[in-house]
Amino acid sequence: MSSPPIEETNGSNNTSTSESVGDFHLLKRIALNYTDVTITKWRSEKTGLRVIHVDYEGPIINGYFAVATEIFDDSGCPHTLEHLVFHGSEQYPYSDALQRIAFRSFASTPNAYTAQDTTVYTISTAGGTSFLRLLPVYVDHILYPRLTESTFVTEVFHINGEGQDAGVVYSEMQGRQNTVADLVDLAYRRKLFPKGNGYRSETGGLMEALRTLNLAKIQDYHSRYYAPHNLCLVVTGRLSTQALLEEVQKTIEVRAGVHEQDKGIKPDEWKRPFMETESAIVPKIESNSSISVEFPAKEERFGEITIVTIGPSPDDEQTSAALSLLGEYLTGNIVAPLNKELVDIANPYCTSIGIGSTARAKFTEIHVTLSDVPTKYLGNLEIKLRKILQKIARQGLDMKRMHSIIDRVERLGRHGLEEVGGEAFSGIILQDFLYGDDYSEKLEKQLQLPELFHKLRSLKHQDWLDILDRWVIQPNMLVVRARPSSTMAQRLESEEKARIQEQVSRLGPGGLEKRTHMVHEAKAKNEEPMPDEVVESIHVPDVKTITWISVQSASTIADSRELEAVEPSSQLLARHLEADSVALPFALHFDHVSSQFVTVTTYISLGAVPDDKKTLVYIFETLFFASEVSLEDGTVLSEAELIHQLEHDLVSYSLDHCDGYPELLCLSLRVDVARYDLAIQWMRRLLWSNKASTTKLQSRIAILKQSLPEYLRDPQSVLSELQAEELYTESFTKRAFYARRLIEWVPEFERRLKQDPRGVVNEVEDLRASLLKPSELRFSVIGDVLKLDRPRSSWLEKFQSLPFAPVAPVRLLNETLSTLGKKPGKRAVIVSLANIESSFSSQHALGILGFSHPQTPALLVALDVLSGAELYFWKRIRGAGLAYGASASLDVQIGHVSFDAWTSPNAAKAYQEAKRVVEGLVNGTIPLENHKLEAAKSSYAYTLAEGFSTRSSMAHFIFTNRVLRGRSSSWIQDRLAAIQDVTVEEVLDMMKQHILPLFQSETSVAFVVCGPGQVDDIASGYRAEGYDVEIRHMDDRVPWADDAEDSNFTTKALKLLGKAVSAGEMLVKWTQGLFHL
Ligand SMILES: [Zn+2]
């Protein structure tokens, strides 16, 4: 173990490099040789502030501002401070300042989290200019927050007028403190760490402690821990390091000087949290021991077991990495050894097994968690687990599989790194700030991934067995048995009731009134807004400062050696493709980005599937990778062999509905560039040498039956289903996938499967043949095309036998609209769900249709003005407690505008308030200030930049934009410019033309899902607005409910094993991808 880190390097003479910028000395420069990322670590000799810049190419800059937050009690100072920091600072003394400045600076919402050892404040911006502008504002909030009594009242704790305990942090902990996860976590830490150790505390704050916490204590904690020498600014992304340090120097360092925080890198009396306190002592587990924890539950059937052991030193990165690979080996997929013994069996011992670790100052904690353990096994399942592990060790490990796992993890790591750049290292770097040494080589060693993988590959069979034995089988275990208790649930409820009653009588009517007044006053004080002139004095950056990943695109012409017309910026790609000139029976679309990978995709149009065969598409999709596939030499691969082989050869594979195009299925295979030919070969095999089997059909239907009931109880699924049923015709494929449709269809399908299995398999095969008609297929290659030797001719051998056919146009969703969908009006449908207590609604009206409509930019800004964070709906609907969230949006593919409100006590009231806002804006009684328009435009720019910040998301967008929407490659820049030009008048005009009709019954339809108790109020609200209301009660029973012995349990088990693809999951994915830019 290295000696205490800071003293060792105290004084500027010891620094390993003489490079400096102002007060900042360079501690380390790490230039990685396997990826284009450079990390520089800097420290101010004046204040001790650390700045770490992770430099790499990309449009988004991320900030992680970390404070090491050690505490020796459960008061929750770290967590409460995290909340209070966002409510104004010395230089910006307004509650909404940071948010409002961020929202006009192409930035994400400022956010934060508090862990056991640190509080990290986060922000992302599009472009470096906005980042540097926000940085000093943010840090002013962190180091010099305006900690006031009024924000303490609203954000931390107060007693309200009804005598109940409240406050944002208090309510958060009320929701967390008695969950099984928190109870187990606190219980084992109390056992493992002695008093005086920081790892023992509840940093979130226990409710009983929050009730007695006061502002002075938080202020005191802040003054001790929130100091420059305990703060690290990690910045990831492309900006000038020099400019970053100069900005810090001229703003943050100056303020630190004013506050007399320029006492060098280690002021007297300062003990480094966790490293130089009692928390650094490594605990011992002297013998196997166990503790029992009760947790409140309605049913007492399933508990949880967590096993904690002391793992290796955090400096031993090789053993830590090996342990996580062993975890993957033991539990990673269906055929993994522990799952085979404990989960994937007739009567499972648990639904999942997780192996993980937590880094502490001087050791690593290893955790094994067994979830949903039937209570009869809670007493000794760890003994069975240990026996199984011993058996695995005796029988030996499958080294072929271990190496395949190492390869796969490495490939996925390389791909992740390429997608998010040096951002992938932010976790390791924050860890290094907390527990590392300014000058040590540890960080550099941790980041040398190729060397690490090389070492892991060279481990022998015996080495793996030794690691398994030493760190998993042998160590003494601390076992936590979490037992469900309905008595505890009742007890907590009655104790809480009694406590509140006592509180009410103690305070008396006078006291309660005083509380109401106090809360009211605090709220009013907090809501004093930042004056508009201050907001407007902060200059909005130019959209031209945002950088975009460049993509070159070209398409070949079917049955020809020629290319379609290519834009000048794609000439390099065109020449490369022309050099490999062959004629293929179909057009091939190429989108080039610099990369180590290439993705081959086949788009399959569902437009030609007859309406009565739509449900079979669901079966086709679910069975796609669970079939038998024959290879060229005649070998037939089983499902398990297929999965192993795909995982071995590819980086990833998927079959899904194309984002935004639910009538297109896309089969995507991603490989290392060198395996391009292999990807094409797999494409051929998976599409044409793939055969459904009756056994698989039966097991999938069984899984489907078990997973359906939960979607009948999920309000968002029911709402989507309701909308699809009302707004679309049968020709909309996904309509056939909804839970209620499947429930009707499944028993009949099952019966046919029993009586005539061959016939059913033939039906699936007929569907496959009709889907694979050449007129319904499109082929695309995305990735580093310039690195491919034979980008076109590689396809020849595998695909030349495909006959030429002109490609049918993609069917757009508006072609599947029902009569109501084409002309919404008057109708409101309310569905009651027995298991919920709040309402979810969606409102539709005609908007504008088509991908190039000239009004789109103005309408989008108008919608953002309504829905953006801190804007109208946020303040008037969310702020007033009318719904947890509300937003309005546009779908140009169906030509609808819509208004959605979720988790609302009364959907009709949320609707009425939204209507008042829009009417008020249109008639001028509610002003539309310019800064709101700017905030909406800025949030659009950030969302766009964030959405296209990875190579694969950008290249995929360029493909759909060009091939499916027929728009130019400069679309993003053109759209952003058009958005910037939108005026207040245009926005108001759009509200009048297109948004107001959404709140008039003649031109709109409303769909609501709510609890049974809410139906009457909501229905009369909509009737008052002029809608014809239909009320339905959802029947959440399924015909097979009685014969499913414990469907929920088995479904969970199967799902966690990655076997079940449920209707609801697809549905959620689909609704997420529904809205188009
Ligand atoms: Zn919180």
UniProtKB/TrEMBL annotation:
One of its GO terms (molecular function) is metal ion binding. It comes from the Eukaryota. Pfam families: Peptidase_M16, Peptidase_M16_C. InterPro entries: Metalloenz_LuxS/M16 (IPR011249), Pept_M16_N (IPR011765), Peptidase_M16_C (IPR007863). Residues 74-157 form the Peptidase M16 N-terminal domain. Residues 213-406 form the Peptidase M16 C-terminal domain. PANTHER family: METALLOPROTEASE, PUTATIVE (AFU_ORTHOLOGUE AFUA_4G07610)-RELATED, PRESEQUENCE PROTEASE. This is Mitochondrial presequence protease.
